[in-house]
Amino acid sequence: MKACNSESPTPKSTEISTVGPAKIANPIAFGRFVEEDDAVLVNISRRTVEGNPKSRKKPEHIYFEPAGPRDKIYYDPSKTKCAVVTCGGLCPGLNDVIRAIVMAACHEYKVPSVLGIQYGLAGFVPEQGYDVVELTPSFVSRIHEFGGTVLGSSRGPQDPEVIVDALERMNVSILFMIGGDGTMRAAATVVAEIEKRGLSISVVGLPKTIDNDINYVSPSFGFDTSVETAAMAIKGAHVEATGAPWGIGMVKVMGRDAGFIAAQSALSCQEVNFCLIPEDPFDIHGEKGFLAALDERMKRRGNAVIVVAEGAGQDLLAASGKADASGNVQLSDIAALLKKEILEHFGKQGIEATLKYIDPSYIIRSVPANANDRIYCSFLGIHAVHAGMSGRTGLVISRWNGRYVHIPMAVVTRGKKRINTCSNYWRAVLESTGQPVTMKND
Amino acid sequence: MKACNSESPTPKSTEISTVGPAKIANPIAFGRFVEEDDAVLVNISRRTVEGNPKSRKKPEHIYFEPAGPRDKIYYDPSKTKCAVVTCGGLCPGLNDVIRAIVMAACHEYKVPSVLGIQYGLAGFVPEQGYDVVELTPSFVSRIHEFGGTVLGSSRGPQDPEVIVDALERMNVSILFMIGGDGTMRAAATVVAEIEKRGLSISVVGLPKTIDNDINYVSPSFGFDTSVETAAMAIKGAHVEATGAPWGIGMVKVMGRDAGFIAAQSALSCQEVNFCLIPEDPFDIHGEKGFLAALDERMKRRGNAVIVVAEGAGQDLLAASGKADASGNVQLSDIAALLKKEILEHFGKQGIEATLKYIDPSYIIRSVPANANDRIYCSFLGIHAVHAGMSGRTGLVISRWNGRYVHIPMAVVTRGKKRINTCSNYWRAVLESTGQPVTMKND
Amino acid sequence: MKACNSESPTPKSTEISTVGPAKIANPIAFGRFVEEDDAVLVNISRRTVEGNPKSRKKPEHIYFEPAGPRDKIYYDPSKTKCAVVTCGGLCPGLNDVIRAIVMAACHEYKVPSVLGIQYGLAGFVPEQGYDVVELTPSFVSRIHEFGGTVLGSSRGPQDPEVIVDALERMNVSILFMIGGDGTMRAAATVVAEIEKRGLSISVVGLPKTIDNDINYVSPSFGFDTSVETAAMAIKGAHVEATGAPWGIGMVKVMGRDAGFIAAQSALSCQEVNFCLIPEDPFDIHGEKGFLAALDERMKRRGNAVIVVAEGAGQDLLAASGKADASGNVQLSDIAALLKKEILEHFGKQGIEATLKYIDPSYIIRSVPANANDRIYCSFLGIHAVHAGMSGRTGLVISRWNGRYVHIPMAVVTRGKKRINTCSNYWRAVLESTGQPVTMKND
Amino acid sequence: MKACNSESPTPKSTEISTVGPAKIANPIAFGRFVEEDDAVLVNISRRTVEGNPKSRKKPEHIYFEPAGPRDKIYYDPSKTKCAVVTCGGLCPGLNDVIRAIVMAACHEYKVPSVLGIQYGLAGFVPEQGYDVVELTPSFVSRIHEFGGTVLGSSRGPQDPEVIVDALERMNVSILFMIGGDGTMRAAATVVAEIEKRGLSISVVGLPKTIDNDINYVSPSFGFDTSVETAAMAIKGAHVEATGAPWGIGMVKVMGRDAGFIAAQSALSCQEVNFCLIPEDPFDIHGEKGFLAALDERMKRRGNAVIVVAEGAGQDLLAASGKADASGNVQLSDIAALLKKEILEHFGKQGIEATLKYIDPSYIIRSVPANANDRIYCSFLGIHAVHAGMSGRTGLVISRWNGRYVHIPMAVVTRGKKRINTCSNYWRAVLESTGQPVTMKND
């Protein structure tokens, strides 16, 4: 019986900090303001709601604060300057988030200025010499039709003191940081430095991850688009596999520690026979190993499609020992290993398998957001502006149980989300692929 | 102050009926079975969870039963015959649902036969002479790459006695009905007739609506795809509007009683200036009316894009008095009225406006499902099979608060979902379009 | 035996005028210049090449001048100002042509200024008050990713004197006119006025038509893209037709006098059963008429897809008597007539046909150009600049027999291209649809 | 001054062989038959048509025979059996060609049987055990919606005696061979073997090459589709390049000996800065080398997009010495070399360039054909049937100067088509990229 991955850890506190009391009437013209006692239950299954029936202890209910406009805001819009920065790798929807922030700040709150910090946190460092961009509604008007980020991005942290110096120098009141868990951790240090200096600067995070592996962010923006694009590559692999005798199509997709793209695109295509993810270790050789299962499939059906997440099977490879500027360990190439092993396996039997390998790589993250992600990103950006204007800080905007919520940065940076290999979700993948429940020799 | 639409009515009972006790061990090989006391809270805001703090009454919690496989099932798979029928208008994803049902029944439960009833409920009527199709895994293998339904569809009810006669004659144990609220009401009468006859036949519904207007189905399958397609038409309207002096692009989209497609595609495009929906009545003339607002926009910016749901502004038109076979009243043509009024309005001022009208009509519902809908439909189909095999009946499969659930048919057919015009969602549309909060003269 | 449409009329003269002798060395750095005696044979079939074997007369060979850079140019690039105008209805690729002209003029010839005239010929008229746009390489850099024209367009002629006044006032040396046959006729009057005044201004035309009906332009730019988009609508009609009992899908596409879009998209889809075009008159009633053929198809196969060009069957309708600003007679609605007749025809037999009508209208002309058209438009724009810089005037750029050529404006405006209904091309359409060779009762 | 590549060699003979005299009246119902003396001039420039004006020698005109139906055919349709085989690597449009052959044979000529040979020439070899497929109109009806080939394919030659044995055994009258130049050479040996045995079997070739490098095939089917798909990958590279400081996007595309995909997709994207092809050798180092040019671009604009054909710069690499089953030499990896050199070049200057490498590989050849290729493939298939039925053999179907023609196999297999680096076409690429005319030192 294999071990399951645990779910996201229950947050201890979901309270959101503020830079000060909100006293100014919100100028936005219409709609309902979020009511003070409104809150979104985090865990909605009956057991958590009702608590242990045998215990006398009242069940403890944990809530997230709903996102949305408040009737009182902290910052005086006419004197507020905002700044936006995009960090880490590209992801579909970055321009949509930027656009939504600018539109909401300028049109709803009439904020006079939104600055764009170029090339990630490096853009705060004077020595780098990157200009700051004035993000006007007209400038951002059509950027959502392009992939990538109009601001540029870069990896790696920067000194929080340098960042806060820059914020002070530029008179920024609200900083919107779009980035991965590394960026959210950097954001927390910026918040601490701001607090230390006693400044009234809000920092609002917008969690970004092509791997969909951030806790309580479900799914992350751009994920749907990247799955759609990965599915196209898989479709190609299927065509190649069925177009040759002993045809095998193999596709490597992103997914360092979590196999969401691999699993979701396998579900979407319905033509995948093996989905290999980091959360589900496997053996290559042995009676129950991957090659045995592939051998069985090939002899039964004559072709196979394999989708492998880049982080799958890393235990089978020598560690590369290298890391990128964000501190991500450079992965060893599981696809190369599998390719070699597969061809050898069939070669020994005198069978010349035709293996076609496709690595869509950056194609899946550089496309513009699809309609679904476009709308999602708009809401994230709008809600980030509402949160910032209300004086909230140290939080991220997310969607949970179908509602937009505020989550403390500390909650989303504690660990990473994984596919639970005991879940119905993973079972659906196994059903769809028809691969063995485990390819581990006990 | 305009009236808001109320939210979906709170269900009175969420209990699911069964045709008998489930006593057979579930043969599916892996994954966790749904535990008996698991349940999904329907309303997850703090007030409902905690109840009125001033009252001593314990808050009442309403749950939906989670979808998924049970450890015991009712039907003996080796003796089970399933049937699938698709009813009403087309919708992206129908073939995906059919495929998922067949794959889950045949591969997971080893059910020997799944029948396809052709052309909707008419397919049950011997006089119509439609053959029944044997839906094998090989037959359905690639149907998800095509739009529409491989079974064909038709509108209108049929005598439940005739339907149950046919089910008896064909020895069907589980009937999967894919259709709109009319179909779900028909399903309820079939359930009643089955019960009256004391038969062991389960009926599982899969709610379908291009308009996304079914209660507790959020969103309905295919909606995402249709929005994506509608967005393409709107993009064309934007190009036309900006390509001519005094250019106006107008797009009519589906949405009889609810403007979800109009609103969602407006959000997705970010280039719409007026979004007209059934839920938000407007005047054409008068100081605050639509023409005044359009006039202001045109004189300020020189062009405008209008998206109008087919059901918008019906109070401005003489009722057509006709209805289709499903009982849907035939709508009067709001787009034709608007076109006439707009050209007259500017004509009187000596301005020759260039109005380009686009009606994507059936294009948006006949496309194949996108990746997102494809996955959604797969899960709906799989869960329908789990529900049916467990002996449940009279229910529909839906997703609520991010989880797949069982909902009694009576709950989803009570009224229709509407856009709440006081919600943050509608406010986001208004922000995105920049149209007045109301275009009603008091 | 029905009459065939004749081919494009043989041009009398293919000589291109110039504003003066080209004496300046061409500054472009690389590539081969077009040699003086190079020429492209217009009619390449053996009979034309060899002439009548029985006659002693030497065969007369007609050539088009090849497009491309000349070693000598007329205009001194450093003192040259260009202008671009887009006229008439939208068409995929307009922005690509504009971009290519600007890039070639600015980068290859180092022309200091390219002006954009807004909203068609109206942009030359001072009373209209449209600003002139400075088209820099940076401004046009990404416009090809959008449909439509960044300059705007309008219909209708303007006084050539007013246009030449404006060209003189702005010091324009080369005017690039992108438009249909009406625009090319207007261009000819501008050329005449320039000549009358003895000015050194070149006018180069780029023929545009969504209907692909200009002589010696084969195909026109954007045609491929519009066919691709029309095909999508037809695919939808096919899905609808096969998704209902007695299902009929009908799509109306552009094509006022020529059915190229209808025919080409029918060939592309391979799922069309009737393709109705202006060149092939048909009867609705009678033994051989359309309804009889449709009746036969429906009873044999149960569904049908009809593609009808907007200009088809106009003889069956009362003339509308109206015309648009370009002088195009407003067509009567053949689709509405067909719909009515079809439903009546089957209704009389007690059959309730399900007819789904799709009019993609402006969607097919407002999309961005596909890869193929993008390249085509680039070459058209580049060659237009080469032609203009060499001092040529009164010509259009086209592709003939696979090569880019110069054609006198008079040649392309003489009559319109039609589908030859005796050609192998039309036969391929008939084969693909399976419709009768004629639906005319003798 | 660098050397140009020569154009395709002038064919010595363009006469098409037949298996015997065509005496049977063609049964197809409509359209014009090709007239006996019709012919398409091969070289249409004035000099070839007129001949040397100084010489008294009459110019020699070379013609291709036009494709199309003849009034007399050789095979009696009711007794004719056809066979289709697809060989070599996949290419968009294979299924469209198969479909068109089946439809034309069965519907136009009422041929009773079209056989599908599976997995290329290997399918003729009894030892391989591949079943022959009966290709009915119903079987092929929707195959054009899928990429790849429904018949499967394989590489490598087979003994022509074995192939002809199989044709005799199966009573095949006409064999349609779809494949690259290797396949066309194999076809020629099959034709020779048939002739040697005195059999009445026609062999008609349909030239296929993803690289577009077959003489007198312009362009090859599927090329347009693959360019469209490659353009998508390049767009991603552009997004990545502009999204990072010192960003470089590099895309490798197919093109073993000819850089058509690289050049065409660079033209299509307009965002490529370096296009490296086999026909244009370059140095990496040195004053005029690639790195110097890249360095200049990077310092001027901050980013660059590079498209490299897989066969470019092979002289810079050690030969791999390996070959695949078709005899294609395995190329060394130019992209890996460039990546290493680029990072080192900037690394030495203390600049950390961000190089994102994308290899779309098989994605670009496994997609379904676009509308344009779909129509092209239909005509190729139809004309192949006309040619075969008329008793012609040893020919291929192609399009030349805009007309469909018959070309002897020997003409298309003599050498391969290359990009002429002195042509206006290549100059347009250089203009579009802005790269130096040559990156060769001296």
UniProtKB/TrEMBL annotation, chains A, B, C, D:
List this protein's GO terms for biological process: fructose 6-phosphate metabolic process
**Keyword Nucleotide-binding among UniProt keywords:** yes
Gene3D superfamilies in UniProt: 3.40.50.450
The record lists the catalysed reaction(s) as: beta-D-fructose 6-phosphate + ATP = beta-D-fructose 1,6-bisphosphate + ADP + H(+); beta-D-fructose 6-phosphate + diphosphate = beta-D-fructose 1,6-bisphosphate + phosphate + H(+)
Q: Record's superkingdom?
A: Bacteria
Example GO CC term: the record gives: cytoplasm
Keywords annotated in UniProt:
ATP-binding, Glycolysis, Kinase, Magnesium, Metal-binding, Nucleotide-binding, Transferase
Which cofactors does this gene product need?
Mg(2+)
The record, for InterPro entries, names: ATP_PFK, PFKA, Phosphofructokinase_dom, PKF_sf, PyroP-dep_PFK_TP0108
Q: Describe the task this protein carries out.
A: Catalyzes the phosphorylation of D-fructose 6-phosphate, the first committing step of glycolysis. Uses inorganic phosphate (PPi) as phosphoryl donor instead of ATP like common ATP-dependent phosphofructokinases (ATP-PFKs), which renders the reaction reversible, and can thus function both in glycolysis and gluconeogenesis. Consistently, PPi-PFK can replace the enzymes of both the forward (ATP-PFK) and reverse (fructose-bisphosphatase (FBPase)) reactions.
Q: What is this protein called?
A: Phosphofructokinase
| UniProt organism field | Pseudodesulfovibrio mercurii
